[in-house]
Amino acid sequence: MILLALLEARARHGYELAKLIESESDKKLQFHVASLYPMLYRLERKGLVEGRWVEKAGERRRRFYRLTAQGRRALAQQRRNWREFAQALNRLTGFNHA
Amino acid sequence: MPDWRAYARGRLPRLRVPPERENEIVAELALQLDQAFAEALAGGASEADALRRAEAQFADWPALAREIDAAEARLAAQLEPSRGGALAGCWHDLRYAVRFFRRNPGFAAIATITLAFGIGGNTAVFTMVDAVALRSLPYHDPGQLTAIETRKAQQPELEPWTSASDLQDMRARTGAFSAIAGISPMWNVVLTGLGDAQRLTALYVSADFFPLLGVNPAVGRGFRPDEDNGAQTSHVVMLSYSYWQRQFGGRANAVGKSLALDNALYTVIGVLPAAFRYEGEPLAGTAEEIDVWLPLSANPIVPSPRGLRFLKVVARLKPGVSPEQSGHQLRALAAALAEKYPGTNRGFAFYVQPLRAQVNGRFRVAMLLLLGTAGFVLLMACANVANLLLARAAVRHKEIAVRVALGASRFRLLRQLFTESLCLASAGGILGLAVAFAGLKLLIAAAPASLVRAQDVRLDIRALAFACIAVWLCAIAAGLPPAWRTVRADIEAALRESGRGLTAGHHRLRATLVVAQVAAALALLASAGLLVRSFQRLLDVDPGFQARNLLTISTQIPQAANTPAGRTAMYRLIRDRLLAVPGVVDVAAVSRLPLMGMNLSTWIFVEGKSTPGEPGADVEYRAATPSYFSTMRIPLRAGRIFDDRDDANAASITLINETMARKFWPGGDPVGKRIKLGDHPAQAPWITVVGVVGDVRHVGIDTQPLPEMYRAYAADPLGSPMLVIRTATDPKPLVSALSAKVRSVSAEVPAYNVWLMQDLVDRSTAQRRFVMWLLSAFALTALLLAVVGVYGAVAQSVTQRTPEIGLRMALGASPAAALRLALGQGIRLAAVGIAIGAAAAVGLAQLMRKMLFEVQPLDPVAFTAAALALAVCAALASYVPARKAARIEPLAALRR
């Protein structure tokens, strides 16, 4: 779900994704970069993301990943699930803010 | 700057993807390394430091390659389904599972052994139940084979023997069967002329017996109809395969040889196939090897009167004829015969049932109960393994959570976890086959001969198939619930720092499993308790005679001596010869012995009780020599026993048993009272009761005695007496000598149905004993599994709640309170389980009603004992982790 969410706004390459996960979660979520690439390939094989080599002026050639239509639908579904889960959790624990 | 591409290529093992895809992946990984290196340099790190940081990103290249291969496997499967991509995924799962078990050998061993015993025990029990109660008979078109039984209307529990004359009438006067064959009781014949004299076991069968079953001789030929037509005695014999091997070394020239059996020469005409066994029992509850087969007409007692019922009858239905139609014909025939021969056939009817039902009908309920019990225990073993897997899942949740959060599919994870449980179950299955092999040997050794020796009980392809199904069932039952629970819980917990939340769901599932285990254990313990109580009652039953050191031989007085005086003289001759054998204490004769499954009854007219013109009362009828009661140790209750002085007026006196005394003269003294025999009291002479003897359990130890009268032997000299011989010591070594003594009287005097009375008594309780032991063993296993389950649940809960308990103790709670907390949890689980189990046990007890003896299905003793045993064991199992809870150091716990 995290990867899909990070790719929602725009296409990103692997290195960027790794940095984002680390910084956006205030380093609370840690994982090995070694897990990132197999995960991206898996999402690609499932048709949720699409990877493409892009060469921009002044930059070197990189592989960018973007969300497919199927990926968008999957993300929306996962968000719904998450929201329901968080709400249920909130009700149970009495927190107002998840 | 390093060449990161060469670096990555050099370290990443070969991938299972097309080369161009592999190049792409290497390039992308090299980019990642390069950027990390560049960023570190830009941040001010030294080159060596930057190099180290970049390299640290991919520490385990082989693991990375495996992950990528697994991720790309879907592509491989889509592109090249024929190359077995899904298979590669499963292979990966399998290797992953094996690695996991290698890292957790203790867990793997306990789970495997638990399942091995579950699967092995079930396979062994299934193999026995399959052979005894499920498999169809090994004959041609077994569905058309039926057993015809002669039964007395009021005594359906008696053995269903048929007389030779009735068999003739069945053949002549029913059209429903293509063939009807008679089978004699087991006969002992003596073979001479081939070395030492040998005692062989023989069966006399009709000529159409083997064709009816569809059995062809392995060598030679079978009986021809003209060899069994009764016009003349045909001296031909067929050998069993094992006897042929033993005596003739399996040589084909055995056919045509002569065997001297009981002093007559018989020509060997054929040998039966090695696999042939007759599954219908010559005498229910016994299953000896038959050595030789003879034509029925050669049997010395075939010409006996219609009243002597001694044959088992098997028949094959004509195509298109239903069992109901044949039953209708046989009922009509029985009615006609009862009218024509009221003296011998009144009150008797012919019943038809599938041969298979006759063979295994008595065992079916018990066998299915055992199979069900074994299945229960297997499910409990699965629950234990499921609990172990749940405990492992709590440890592994971080690994799984990361995989889920980063996009691993639920299916993928489920498959991985299921592969693990399938691995466990398969290992359990393989080990289980060894357990089954050993278990089956034990079962066969412990089972009553009648149950397993007549059948071919061994691990075969059906047992293997059963074990495979059990493996899959275990993998699903033990693996799927925790796997599903884990995957769901981890998706929810994926983004949290600590996975403590997921344990709540695990805990509920564990508690449910433990409650189910306790409930099942209670149901089984209560059922086993009922059977144990029944058996206790059964052992307390006095059979009415002393079976120890008692032997019986059936014989037949030859036609030449067939007058009352001749019979008496012949009997005395036999008796004197037997008494001359050292070790013989007493000899007697009777018309019907207890527990032999034969019976004879009569109608009586009781003076002052019966009304002339109305049907008489039905009582059991015996003729016995005066010494019968002392030989059998049947006690005298009132009056006197006959003696030799009674010979002159023997016809006018009788003894009766206590049940008969109570039935006709309740509260009074029957001695001196008078009765008459038969249907026509006006013409019959009066018979005076001279004594009352103790009741004897004639039909079976578990069947109430019937009213019985004993007439003096002199009044009714027996044509086919059953001899009872009391010896000073164990009569087993004397069997051959005593049989030979009987035969030595005359070449025409046979000796058959030779039994130790103790064997007959044991036979009467053997099946109950076996089922009781087996069910008790399963119930104890269930108890053990439930206790392990309770222990595991409480122990895990204590581990998880250690910080909480530490906090409570820091706030002033005493160790005793911590002890109570943990103990209370175990006892609560057990209490819920016991309550549910009690309800299940009530249902189970109703199903078992038929197997109980003088014990109510809701016997409070059995139920209370089961609940108490379970409660105590559960409390003890909780006490161990509870003590650990009481010893928790508050500071150490809070620091965790």
Write a structural description.
The complex is a heterodimer of chains A (98) and B (896). Chain A is α+β, with helices and mostly antiparallel strands and 98 residues long. Chain A is 58% helix and 14% strand. Chain A contains four helices and three strands. In chain A, strand 2 (49-54) and strand 3 form a beta hairpin. Chain A is globular. Chain B has 896 residues and is α+β, with helices and mostly antiparallel strands. Chain B folds into four domains: 4-83, no CATH class; 154-346, no CATH class; 363-541 and 764-895, no CATH class; 550-759, no CATH class. Chain B is 53% helix and 15% strand. Chain B has 25 helices and 23 strands. The longest helix of chain B has 51 residues, at 355-405. The relative contact order of chain B is 0.10. The interface between A and B is medium-sized, with 30 and 33 residues.
Largest sheet of chain B: 6 strands, mixed, barrel
Beta-strand share of residues of chain A: 5-15%
Q: Give me the secondary-structure category of chain A.
A: alpha+beta
How many DSSP helices of chain B?
Answer: 25
Radius of gyration of chain A: 16 Å
The share of residues in helices of chain B is 40-55%
**Which regions of chain A contain 5 or more consecutive residues with pLDDT less than 50?**
none
CATH topology of chain A: Arc Repressor Mutant, subunit A
The N- to C-terminal Cα distance of chain B equals 46 Å
Strand order of the largest sheet of chain A: 1-3-2
Mean residue pLDDT of chain B: 84
Write out key terms for the chains shown.
heterodimer; A: 98 residues; alpha+beta; Arc Repressor Mutant, subunit A; three-stranded antiparallel β-sheet; 4 helices; B: 896 residues; six-stranded mixed beta barrel; 25 helices; elongated
Q: How do the helices and strands line up, and which of them pair or pack?
A:
The complex is a heterodimer of chains A (98) and B (896).
Chain A: H1 2-9, E1 12-13, H2 14-24, H3 33-45, E2 49-54, E3 62-67, H4 69-93
Antiparallel strand pairs in A: 1-3, 2-3
Chain B: H1 4-11, H2 19-42, H3 47-56, H4 61-79, H5 85-103, H6 105-134, E1 145-152, E2 162-163, H7 164-173, E3 177-183, E4 187-192, E5 198-205, H8 209-213, E6 219-220, E7 236-239, H9 241-248, E8 258-261, E9 264-271, E10 292-295, E11 309-317, H10 323-340, H11 342-345, E12 348-354, H12 355-405, H13 410-446, H14 449-452, H15 461-493, H16 502-540, E13 550-554, H17 564-579, E14 584-590, E15 601-606, E16 617-624, H18 628-632, E17 636-639, E18 653-657, H19 658-664, E19 674-677, E20 687-693, E21 708-712, E22 722-727, H20 735-744, E23 751-756, H21 757-800, H22 802-810, H23 815-847, H24 860-886, H25 890-895
Parallel strand pairs in B: 5-10, 7-9, 16-21, 18-20
Antiparallel strand pairs in B: 1-11, 1-12, 2-11, 3-11, 4-5, 4-8, 4-23, 6-9, 7-10, 8-9, 13-22, 13-23, 14-22, 15-16, 15-19, 17-20, 18-21, 19-20
